Amino acid sequence: MKVHEYQARDILQKAGIPVPEGGVAVTVDEALAFAVKIGFPVVLKAQVLVGGRGKAGGVKVVKTEDGLKETFEQIKALTIKGYPVEKIFVVKAIDIQKEVYMAITIDNAKDDVVLIASSAGGVDIEETAKTNPEKIQKFYLEGQRDIDEHRWVDFISNVFDGAQAQAQGTKIFQKLLDVFFQKDCTLAEINPLVVNEQGQWLAADAKMNFDDNALFRQDEVAALRDMAYEDPDEVEAKECDLSFVKLDGNVGCIVNGAGLAMGTMDIIKLLGGEPANFLDVGGSSNPEKVLNALKIILKNEKVKAVLINIFGGITRCDDIANGILEARKQLDLNVPLVVRLTGTNEEEAKELLAQNGISIFSTMREAVLKVVETVSD
Ligand code: GDP
Ligand code: MN
After folding, report:
1. Looking at the predicted structure, is the pLDDT value of residue 232 above 90?
2. Does domain 21-92 have CATH number 3.40.640.10?
């Protein structure tokens, strides 16, 4: 899960990291009120959950009321990487002397937390990473939760010049590390961390991503979710306790078990088809789940057929069959269903479906061949 810059900034501020004063506005009058309170010049910043706002014209310094009004409307009219700008963050402009990049994330390949920093921070950091990778410094925690002081000096002295800046940088990194662990972040990034004329270091931009699987214990973070950025079908699926990921193809899939769901998608592709989704109804055999799953899948107009692939262990095939029959009663099933059921209570399920004119396959390959053939007609 991602949060907006203004929300990430609040988290940093609570953790004791210096940030510029600011407020988030929806209307130009709100923005003006904040600017008057803070004092000009201020920066207007589009709040969208994607990077590269600066380069897209979404970050502008304004010096006067008229300038603010004009720039506010310009930014409000932007669509950045497909997302319209709804909120604009108004912050006190900093007289920036230097921009540093600072981030903490997880290196999955190394199975470790890594601190990343560069003295060449700012909007061109991605470019720097490509063209001058030696300018990007990395510090691995090596399984610890804290910074190992013996190794630290080398790292920090490559990023900040002078003892005072290094001390400030270390303090901010330590606080960012506390946030990273306390809030179950997968990314905590400040870019740029800047220093003003008075030599004070401030987080001028903040980006935070959180581990979705930890949200159950992060109520404060979960409450920040912006539904405008979530796929409504995925949200609905989550509420129905289904693991669902939307994809681009036209074969709807209902499968039990994440492994079988992935295997099913592989075989659909292998046999020339394209899955419309990943969907795991889980291990329990509640007929309601099949009904909910079909409801969500059928909302996708691209879907030309639905494959139901169930391996009955704990899941009972007859429960699934009942779910299918119930769905047929309640929903307008305007696409063909291809069903493969095997395992616990398979015979009962076959009989139930046969009585209702639905034939089922026992092997996955037959069922997938059938569904791919159906959508290619
Ligand atoms: P991003 O492009 O989405 O990462 O947006 P940022 O918030 O990082 O802003 C992009 C760039 O705008 C920064 O790297 C700065 O160069 C500039 N910028 C942001 N805030 C200020 C500010 O307070 N004063 C000045 N002079 N420039 C700023
Ligand atoms: Mn930035």
Report:
1. no
2. no
